[in-house]
Design brief:
There is one protein chain. This protein is of the alpha/beta class. It is built from ten helices and 14 strands. The strands form two sheets. Strands 1, 2, 3, 6, 7, 8, 9, 10, 11 and 12 form a ten-stranded mixed beta sheet that branches. Strands 4-5-14-13 form a four-stranded mixed beta sheet. A hairpin with a 3-residue loop joins strand 7 and strand 8. The two termini are about 15 Å apart.
Length: about 350
């Protein structure tokens, strides 16, 4: 997508429509069973994958680039996710529902930060090797407009109960990099959609300052966002026929994956956005164990109380939940995820070089 700077926006309705349009162009948090995966293994070639792996409506902002700066570089790590399934309960049959919760253990913020730092340095080196001049982070952070943009965004890391977004030291997260994040459960939530629309407004507000920053640095600006997940969760009762089943079922496949990849380029008043079409699936050997979480005494007592209440009121509905812990091997996780992210960065650089 290529966008020229428009006249000042004075209408709230116009702002809303522009925010929604930009939101539709940004990568969205999709359930992992809705994407077509590509396996990253010994045969994976980033340059070949780059030729068909991105959606880009117009690459005008990429043409003739000679000098670049990377002021936004965000990697989101999903640390918890969940999926629910429910039957329809036709006729006299009660409805059945189940929710499965998964949590990533064995790695944490320090590991995610180390992976991101190495990825950023490798990405800058590949950009330079591709034939463009690359400004380092210190040249970016001293620019007056950069401080304004960071103040409008969020300092890294950004943490929730299910994700952590990290960035290289000194860099903040603002604008389009804040859009479309979260785990697969968030994408199905009304509140998640509203949060993304709010981020869309913030991204619109940042456009003018982003253009000003490009002028101050005399460079094209590159903004990068990626997401790393740890499980593909599926509602097995999805659709009409699935809901007719007597049993509510979910399933999970546990492996690291990379998706929600955005590569935005601002050259003067022109903006191009590349989004990766496919999920990249990585080696499941990054995880050493998947285990059931032991229920506490309070949780077991609560479950018994719910069942007694259902019996007392004659309810035929049933519900259950499971909690599982996915345990990473820290060294193997950093090796596998780090290599996968580096391959993703190589894809971005290769496509940029082609479009230049």
């Amino acid at each position: 997508m290529t966008t020229k700077l428009a006249p000042p926006i004075t209408s709230a309705l116009t702002s809303a429509l522009l925010a929604l349009a930009l939101l539709s162009a940004a990568p969205t948090a999709q359930a992992k069973d809705e994407t077509t995966p590509i396996t990253v293994d010994a045969s994976f070639n980033p340059a070949d994958a780059a030729t068909r792996g991105f959606t880009i409506a117009d690459s005008t902002a990429l043409k003739g680039i000679k000098r670049v700066a990377v002021p936004v570089f965000a990697v989101e790590f999903i640390t918890a996710d969940n999926v629910s399934a429910q039957t329809s309960g036709f006729a006299s049959a009660g409805r059945a529902s189940v929710t499965s919760y998964y949590k990533l253990l064995g790695v944490g913020e320090a590991d995610f930060q180390a992976i991101t730092n190495a990825l950023y340095l490798g990405f800058l080196a590949e950009l330079q090797a591709s034939g463009v001049e690359v400004l380092d982070a210190q040249q970016i952070v001293v620019a007056p407009t950069y401080a304004k943009l960071v103040a409008s965004g969020s300092p890294a890391p950004i943490k929730t109960d299910s994700t952590i977004v990290v960035s290289p030291p000194g860099l903040g997260i603002y604008g389009f990099a804040k859009m479309g994040g979260g785990n697969s459960a968030k994408s199905k939530s009304v509140f998640g959609a509203l949060a993304d629309v709010g981020s869309g407004f913030a991204a619109v507000g940042a456009i003018g300052d982003t253009i000003q920053l490009a002028r101050e640095l005399d460079a094209s600006l590159i903004e990068v966002r990626m997401r790393v997940s740890f499980a593909q969760l599926t509602n097995e009762n999805k659709g009409f026929f699935g809901s007719l089943s007597n049993t509510a079922q979910t399933s999970a496949k546990v492996f690291p994956s990379i998706d929600n990849v955005m590569f935005g380029v601002q050259s003067g008043t022109l903006r191009s956005t590349l989004t990766m079409k496919n999920t990249l699936t990585l080696d499941g050997a990054a995880f050493s164990e998947v285990r059931e979480k032991k229920a506490s005494t309070g949780e077991m007592a609560g479950a018994v109380a719910v069942e007694l209440l259902k019996f007392a009121i004659g309810s035929k509905d049933s519900s259950s939940s499971t909690e599982r812990e996915v345990v990473a091997n820290p060294a193997k996780y950093k090796e596998v995820v780090g290599a996968g992210l580096q391959s993703t960065g190589s894809m971005l650089v290769a496509r940029m070089k082609t479009e230049r």
